[in-house]
Automatic annotation (TrEMBL):
Belongs to the major facilitator superfamily. Proton-dependent oligopeptide transporter (POT/PTR) (TC 2.A.17) family. The lineage of its organism: Eukaryota, Viridiplantae, Streptophyta, Embryophyta, Tracheophyta. It is found in: Membrane. This is Uncharacterized protein. The keyword Oxidoreductase does not apply.
């Protein structure tokens, strides 16, 4: 091993991979005289086994893949916040039924329930014929596809909101909190795309940590794979708290005021789509350089 990143040729994939050895962590397994409490007895609080050091290296190499999912979780959080606010300003009556804005989150749930068996029973066997992999595609590839769908969801939400604001303008409802005569059903596709993104990215991340985590740390890895949800919620709250600071100036109510008809929620969605696109580029950069422990 060396501290510098090595260029290795993968015999299974037949391509070149770059993997950083993180040699400086090896010092934790080197015995020195000050580390000995007495002759023949080592201080276990200072000395680690080689296995422990190598397991730590594996988790550190997995961190960039995990970090890309934090923004994904922040995008998913919009389903419980800004999507609901957007729906409350739209026409919620379909025939004689009134659809609560928050109930549209069930579209995401139904999408996941329907697509998981379709993915496993239909898509995986088809893709397997072309890739020769047991799971069709690797876990990082599955995560990347989900990130793309989440970005498309934000783009679609921006288009719906832009059209809603145009209707509010034409109907003279800009300074009124009255519902805009635009059916809430237009929100369905953006919830659906987030459900598709969840099928790919969330399940892909779980597979990634299960396959790549050391055997002795698999439970910890699985728990760590869910930490991105809480981190994404905090990131979403942080972004939403910054939006009024930078957009509400000079008498302008900002992008997300109390009365959404006076704001520009569509610009917020486009900003999230732009951040998602940047996140995809960063993810691809690290995913292409990550060497999977075993082929999937």
């Amino acid at each position: 091993m060396s501290f510098r990143g090595k260029v290795r040729q993968s015999k299974a994939a037949g391509n070149w991979n770059i993997q950083v050895d993180l040699r400086f962590f090896d010092k934790a397994a080197i015995v020195t005289l000050p580390d000995c409490e007495s002759p023949g007895q080592l201080n276990k609080w200072k000395i680690c086994t080689v296995t422990q050091v190598e397991e730590l290296k594996i988790l550190i190499r997995m961190f960039p893949i995990w970090s890309a999912m934090v923004l994904f979780a922040a995008v998913q959080e919009q389903m419980f916040s800004t999507f609901v606010e957007q729906g409350m300003t739209m026409e919620k009556h379909v025939w004689s039924f009134e659809i609560p804005a928050a109930s549209f989150q069930s579209i995401d749930t139904f999408t996941v329930i329907m697509l998981v068996p379709i993915y496993e029973r239909v898509l995986v066997p088809v893709i397997r014929k072309f890739t020769g992999k047991a799971n069709g595609i690797s876990s990082p590839q599955r995560i990347g596809i989900g990130l793309c769908f989440s970005m498309l969801s934000m783009v679609l939400a921006a288009l719906v909101e832009s059209n809603r604001l145009q209707i509010a303008q034409s109907e003279g409802l800009v300074h009124s909190k009255a519902a805009v005569p635009m059916s809430i059903l237009w929100q369905g596709p953006q919830y659906f795309l987030l459900g598709v993104a969840e099928v790919f990215s969330n399940i892909g991340l779980t597979e990634f940590f299960y396959d790549e985590s050391p055997d002795a740390m698999r439970s910890l890895g699985m728990a760590f794979s869910l930490l991105n949800i809480s981190a994404g919620n905090y990131l979403s709250s942080f972004i939403l708290s910054l939006v009024p600071v930078f957009t509400a100036r000079g008498g302008s109510p900002g992008w997300i005021p109390d009365n959404l008809n006076e704001g520009h929620l569509d610009r917020f969605y486009l900003m999230m789509a732009g951040l998602s696109l940047l996140n995809i580029f960063v993810f691809v950069f690290y995913a292409r350089r990550y060497k999977c422990k075993k082929a999937s």
